From TrEMBL:
Limits of the GH3 middle domain: 300-364
Name used for this protein in its record: GH3 auxin-responsive promoter
Annotated ranges, domain GH3 C-terminal: 392-498
Domain of life: Bacteria
Length: 509
């Protein structure tokens, strides 16, 4: 084995041991909350909610959540962040942020501007290092630790606006990689700075034979397209024909399972698939150990304090935002296998802030989670209460039953002659002679077995399921049409009726 690879791996092993702590997840989080309050006590937000007084409380956690209401982006911006965006200092975090992360999530709405402080950049780096250290838990050869890492995110060519820089969080993170990592980082600063996604991928395809990639990181849909382009450009059968040492793929942003079959078709060697949870608001979790279900460990002591609202309809408005006084639980109060909406308080000045994701805990002792969906992506027309997690499970079983690849899909409720139907668009990754009616019936039956509320709804007000078979490329063209291609962009798993009609017209054009 290469000597350098052994040295690096040994350093990672030692680093992993040093990183261990005897504190429980709950203790780490209580310490994190106290640190956040201490650092923000003299900000406008800290004074408004009397953080200095809170810090003297013997029941800090309880008093914090009773005194500070919950926020979403709209409430946080209208009450506080509009001043931060205007350049005023010390609003919800000391100083003024150098960066703002642009995010429209999966809604396609006007971009949000989320503060990204220097402390948050350091926290993202620290969590990223923890993930690197966790590689010692996996059975990887020494030589792997000498290979290059391809990170395909947003452009690092950030836009300067009124004294700060704006871009998507992956571009901000890539533009701030530590100096010691630059020798391993691909595609490199020049290609990463290309704003047009198609041009950037073409540049990667041209350079690919010169690189020795061991790991890839990025959102599955766009990594898949990139791999296909690289394979096609270089006229090879598999990505391993070009990068024989490719061993690890770090997924993130969306559930990976719907893409697994597509990824397997592009590789010819076994791959280690790991999950990460990098949101515009911070690096929330990472896969710290081998796990069949790709569960992720919350990043407990790197600038984020977590709370969890039971995901019940009575606690959320029609847009998926929690009501200001919605009850929240601390880490030591949650239960296994129940859906919760995440609240975070961070070193970027977000406070009890709903990022719109839902998770379930798979291991309480290790504080491990899986993302189950979005608070606003919970199809509840006529009481079906169908979550994205159950949709992903059903789609995966459809793939197995019909031998098809279905990496992309979206669904919504439509009315026809006064009756409600679920309209599905399934994006096939490979050409397949499928019967839409057979697929529709199979999907309907699968969902009935997975969700009792859906089963009840189908026996009453939900009259049927209509499946349209299209290609995954149709979704990519749609994103390009909406000028949302690459980077942090995710296909919306649910659309309202108006968006579905717009999508239908696009497909018919």
């Amino acid at each position: 084995m290469p000597l350098l690879g052994k040295i690096i791996k040994k350093a990672i092993d030692v680093g992993g041991q040093i990183a261990e702590t005897n504190d429980s997840p709950s203790q780490l989080q209580q310490t994190m909350l106290r640190e956040l309050l201490e650092r923000a006590k003299d900000t406008a937000f800290g004074k408004a909610y009397a953080f200095e007084e809170l810090l003297r409380s013997e029941t800090l956690v309880e008093d914090f959540r009773s005194r500070v209401p919950t926020f979403d982006y709209k409430r946080m911006k209208e009450a506080w962040w509009h001043k931060t965006i205007e350049g005023l200092p010390d609003i919800s975090w000391p100083g003024t942020p150098e960066y703002f992360a642009l995010s429209s999530g999966t809604t396609g709405n006007k971009s949000k501007r989320i503060p990204v402080t220097q402390e948050m950049i350091e926290a993202i780096r620290e969590t990223g290092l923890k993930q690197v250290l966790s590689l010692s838990e996996h059975d990887l050869p020494d030589s792997f630790f000498e290979k290059q890492i391809l990170m395909l995110g947003s452009s690092t060519d950030l836009k300067e606006v009124d004294g700060h820089y704006e871009g998507e969080i992956s571009g901000i993170s890539a533009s701030n990689i530590p100096f010691w990592f630059r020798g391993y980082y691909k595609p490199g600063e020049e290609i990463a700075g290309i704003d047009d996604w198609d041009e950037r991928v073409e540049a990667i395809a041209k350079k690919a034979p010169e690189w020795d990639i061991g790991a890839i990181s990025g959102i599955p849909s766009w990594i898949e397209l990139m791999l296909k382009k690289v394979i096609e450009w270089n006229k090879v059968e598999s990505i391993h024909d070009l990068w024989p040492n490719l061993a690890v793929y770090n997924s993130g942003g969306v559930a990976f399972e719907p893409y697994r079959a597509s990824f397997d078709s592009l590789t010819s060697k076994p791959m280690l698939y790991l999950d990460t949870y990098l949101a515009s608001e911070g690096f929330l979790a990472y896969q710290a150990r081998p796990s069949q279900n790709m569960a992720m460990q919350l990043s407990l002591n790197t600038g984020i304090y977590f709370e969890f609202i039971p995901f019940e309809q009575k606690y959320f408005d029609e847009y998926g935002s929690p009501f200001p006084e919605a009850p929240a639980l601390s880490l030591n109060e949650v239960e296994l296998e129940k859906d919760y909406a995440i609240l975070i308080s961070t070193v970027s000045g977000a406070w009890r802030y709903s990022i719109g994701d839902t998770v379930k805990f798979t291991d309480l002792e290790r504080a491990e989670i899986k993302i189950t969906g979005r608070t606003k992506h919970f199809l509840n027309v006529v009481g079906s209460q169908l979550s994205v997690a159950k949709m992903n499970e059903a789609i995966q079983e459809l793939e197995e039953r019909f031998g098809a690849e279905i990496p992309e899909f979206t669904v919504g409720a439509v009315q026809r002659e006064g009756e409600f139907y679920h309209l599905w668009f399934l994006g096939l990754g490979t050409a397949k002679d499928l019967n839409a009616q057979e697929v529709s019936e199979a999907l309907d039956e699968l969902l009935k077995t997975k969700n009792k509320n859906y089963r009840v709804a189908r026996s009453k007000a939900l009259k049927g399921v209509d499946v349209r078979l299209i290609t995954a490329e149709d979704f990519h063209r749609w994103n390009a049409e909406k000028k949302q291609k690459g980077g942090q962009v995710k296909t919306p798993r649910m659309m309202n009726e108006e968006s579905l009609k717009e999508f239908e017209h696009f497909l018919e054009a």
